[in-house]
Design a protein that fits this description.
Strand order of the largest sheet: 5-4-6-7-8
Strand content: 25-35%
Shape: flat
Radius of gyration: 26 Å
CATH architecture of the largest domain: 3-Layer(aba) Sandwich
Mean pLDDT: 82
Helix content: 25-40%
Structural class: alpha+beta
Number of helices: 10
Low-confidence stretches: 1-33
CATH topology of the largest domain: Rossmann fold
Distance between the termini: 79 Å
Order of helices and strands: HEHHHEEHEHEHEEEHEHEEHEE
CATH class of the largest domain: Alpha Beta
Number of domains: 3
Number of strands: 13
Amino acid sequence: MHEAMGLKRWMVRMMLMAIALPALAFAQAEARPGLVHAIGTSQIRGGDMSAARQEAIEEGLVTAVSRALIDLLPAESVAGNFQVLNESILNRKDQFVQDYKVLAESQVDDTYRLIVAANVSVGRLDAAVKNAGIRLGKVSFPRVLVCIAEQGIEDLSPDYWWSGQPPLTQRVAAGAVTRALLQAGFKVVQPDLAPGTAMPPAQLSLAQAQALGQQHDAEVVVVGLASAEAETVAGSLRPYTGLVAVRAVRVEDGQLLADIRESARSTAEDPQTGGREAMRQAADQAGAVLAARVAAAWRQKSAAAAAITLNIDGIGGHIADFVKFRSALGNMSGVDNLQVKEMMGNAAALTVQYQGHARALADAVSKLAFDTFAVEIEAVEVQQIRLRLVPR
């Protein structure tokens, strides 16, 4: 009887994984987070092949870290802070390369080349950039909805919050990913399904993920599957493997921001304990990489945001109102890098980077409420807004 139930659970788990992985469209290159392929080149001097090979490996690893760094930061930030990045990161590549493998080697005359596959720690890179004092401007990170289905060792089917059912056990993978997002500065949306709401399946399609995101006023949806497997070995302590596959999708346009798969192992006497611990460790790893990649994507979007000028009248004799308005503008979602372009007796010009067009910014500004003055929008052009501060 127990063997039949075990076989049934195994078959259900395999079927779900077979369905889940193609649906999530994981690329081969994402089998390990931070995996970067790079070519290293060197010159063979005095017939010393060993030295040439090591030199090519070193160059390949620097290139791999450079590529990961450019994916993490806007190109303008890399160029503007290149001296600092060269000293604190590129010159210390060993701190960020967790491991590597030489995939192929070739020699033409005295030129030696090889391909390395390097596992670069995105989390360490992100921390090093912050420690180097590189300021990217204030970026308002998105509101994130976490939708991860979990299936433990003894579960016949996945457990997930959008089923509308109370959790079978504590959802360890979703909790670990949520903690990683919160620690990175993201706002995590608390899900709530209204009675009578249609329940999507465990494996969410892009359209279903976007619909849930819109329903919960989220800007990004993290969707995925976490599971655990037991290895058949003799002894009281058995090894268990946790698998976590997640991707992050932007609700606005369905753009894929991150696509990650992680695994971890643990040992325990109890299958439920061992499987949950392995799943939690894999989710910890996936959450850290996910947070760094979504943050990098949001920074890239912020850097590419349009520059908009706000010409403000009605400041004369009411400088305190102008200061309040400027502070509120700088704290608005989507607004970055606010600068005072010009100050005159009764007017001022501000420039901001905004993730949207001028009309959308003008509409958002018109909704700002102040006790001592009102904001009147007078004109909106492609990259300019003219407005007036009117005392109450």
